[in-house]
Amino acid sequence: MMQFQGSHILSVAQFDREAVSRILDVAKLMIPYASRQKRCHVLEGAILNNLFFEPSTRTRVSFGTAFQLLGGFVHETVGQESSSLSKGESLFDTARVISGYADVIAMRHPTMHSVSEFAEGSTVPVINGGDGANEHPTQALLDLFTIRAEMARFGKGIDDLNIVLMGDLKHGRTVHSLSKLLSLYDNLNITLLSPEALQMPTSVIDSLENAGHKITITDKMAGNLQSDVVYQTRIQQERFSSKEEADQYRGHFSLNKQVYEQYCQQHTVIMHPLPRDSRPEANELDVDLNDHNNLAIFRQAQNGVLVRMALFALTLGVDEILHKHEKPVTWFSNKQLSE
Ligand code: NCD
């Protein structure tokens, strides 16, 4: 079994199926705390440093919320311009210093593999919140948690599913990490739907094929959306050389109510890591599906808190003693979480 305590979480390649299952199970234990039925300040006094050198809403805020729900303090640095990296300091030095101030660090950076480089200098666990187009392991775990929770409604598990990954598969780090995690499961039918120029990197396709999954690569929605899950992604404009280049690919795979009814199955669950581009010209995931029960995108974002709480509990070695720290919640709350 993987040793979580004291470990960095940098890539999904670190996990086997047993480790993933442990993370998802601990995430489930967090439901009463995240939904404010009970509180659990097992990390009281611990400090998280959130270092976000690239735009983020969900990942940064949910890392912070997760840590605070477990009773810890959160310190935030946002944007390279506000850190000494802009004075030429190396990632190693920044890590060595910041890790002296914190018990755990969550980091996002625009350069591929930079979070691993940073982790080499850190004396405390570092959790990758996204390193350029490379990986986004915590997103992949929350995606998998969501797939498991949503499929349970239909009496299904993760094995044997039909899953469509659609959009900018070349630059989207969430689909890279998710695909690698899906390689741990059995007998999946995976459709990679993207413009030809934005296809999934071959290394990721190889890992899916080596797992024995059936892979379909296509640029057509018609006939290819009859699946258990459709996971849509945003055109990652910031990874193109110009906005004009990114614009060429907008609107190719607009998913709206009419497309859903025409091409999807009645039970197809729609996922998206968010943010979706809601400007009308983006033509991405339409708001006309907002009331659809199978639109899982907001449940998915909520699940991020559970999975990040689980990773903090595991890396800081408190996953076995949660119940000892339970206290009642004394304020009004009407939160409800799935599963
Ligand atoms: C994603 C990311 O940053 O990779 N967002 C997220 O963390 N949920 C997806 C995206 O930006 O399109």
From TrEMBL:
One of its GO terms (molecular function) is aspartate carbamoyltransferase activity. Keywords: Pyrimidine biosynthesis, Transferase. Residues 160-314 form the Aspartate/ornithine carbamoyltransferase Asp/Orn-binding domain. Its EC number is 2.1.3.2. One of its GO terms (biological process) is amino acid metabolic process. Gene3D superfamilies: Aspartate/ornithine carbamoyltransferase (3.40.50.1370). It catalyses: carbamoyl phosphate + L-aspartate = N-carbamoyl-L-aspartate + phosphate + H(+). Signal peptide: none annotated. Residues 8-148 form the Aspartate/ornithine carbamoyltransferase carbamoyl-P binding domain. GO terms for cellular component: cytosol. Pathway: Pyrimidine metabolism; UMP biosynthesis via de novo pathway; (S)-dihydroorotate from bicarbonate: step 2/3. PANTHER family: ASPARTATE CARBAMOYLTRANSFERASE, ORNITHINE CARBAMOYLTRANSFERASE, MITOCHONDRIAL. Catalyzes the condensation of carbamoyl phosphate and aspartate to form carbamoyl aspartate and inorganic phosphate, the committed step in the de novo pyrimidine nucleotide biosynthesis pathway. Belongs to the aspartate/ornithine carbamoyltransferase superfamily. ATCase family. This is Aspartate carbamoyltransferase. The lineage of its organism: Bacteria, Pseudomonadati, Pseudomonadota, Gammaproteobacteria, Alteromonadales.
